[in-house]
Amino acid sequence: MFSLATLRIAMRALGRNTLRSVLTALGIIIGVGAVISMIGIGNGAKAQVEEQVASLGQNVIQVSSGSSSHSSVRLGLGTAISLTVEDAEAIESEIPGVVAVSPEVKIKAQVVTGNHNWSTDVYGESPEYFSIRQWPLDDGASFTDLDVRAANKVAVIGSQAAEELFGDEDPLGEIVRIGNAPFKVIGVLKPKGMSASGSDQDDNIMVPYTTAMRRLIGKQTGLRRINVQAAEADTLDRLKDEITELLRQRHRLESSKEDDFTVRTQDELAEAATATADTMTLLLAAIASVSLVVGGIGIMNIMLVSVVERTREIGIRMAVGARSRDILRQFLVEAVTLSSLGGVIGVGVGFATSRVLAAVAHWPTLISTEAVLVAFLFSAAVGIFFGFYPARKASQLDPIDALRYE
Fold this sequence. Notes:
Layout: H1 4-16, H2 18-54, E1 60-65, E2 67-70, E3 73-77, E4 83-84, H3 85-94, E5 98-113, E6 116-125, H4 128-132, E7 137-140, H5 145-150, E8 154-157, H6 159-166, E9 175-178, E10 181-189, E11 204-208, H7 209-217, E12 222-223, E13 225-230, H8 236-250, E14 261-265, H9 266-309, H10 311-319, H11 324-360, H12 369-395, H13 399-404
Helix pairs in contact: 1-11, 2-9, 2-11, 2-12, 9-11, 9-12, 11-12
């Protein structure tokens, strides 16, 4: 146990050379501050991505078409038209625990209204899409099952698309031309912001999927994606397996053949989206930790100098009864005190740096209690690790030689 007397002696020893102690602790201060601020940036980015994934809705499963190849080049998911409307209907009717399904098609189209035009994404969806995504309307209403059955030319537009096409004017009831087809705007969606993939979710237009397939795409009968909502979060893995088995049967895939579709739960989407943020956080923390190691080397250097300067003091202490372990403890406490004080100040520096970055650079930052605790304990461990050798060297001095030292 470190006694209060030992701590007071350590504080007096550090106070004799205040400037030197401050400069030595500066490495620890910078290291801890850098670790906390970098972890804060990484955690902030991860939290932002998780929020974007949560904007997909609640208990969502996405079934995507497989990839196609052209001249031996694979074009990515969704390029092979392997899903059909009948697949979506089968999922909804044959799998218990599914509460909503929305077939999805997507095209890039030039949209014109009056003297305004804008290139945006046009999605063909079912009315259930808005409940799956938990996406309320800012104004107007969404299309209905009747609109889907009749392939009516009605549209619900995102807030960004509405601003680009209509400015400050009210878009409800207005006509927009998508490709060569006129659509009546019946609703405007509330803003959702960026998606986990980096696209603007508000820059789009939603129409009934039947209308998109008949009026905009033409002869295409396949779907880009099927959005599925489960009743309970703990059933997602089971539903994923059942959907996979059902689609393999419908597509007549033999056991030796790979799936021509991809099924992903919302949890899997979140893990994939946050993997990069986790890697970035770890990398930033590792780089910032180098400053702590450099600070620890500075502590070792100064403590070695201190041992040489205080050789006679060590000899006198041993002469009046101090044991080797008492000397080791004294110098070790000095090193730990120096690094711990630097760690406390570094925590404040890290908080301040994170706030400045958030205010000036508009970077999302999130500092956790665990990060602060780990950074502080690591700074104390640096003091123990790099202070042990000088402390041991001091404890092994011969008292007679120490007293004779000039």
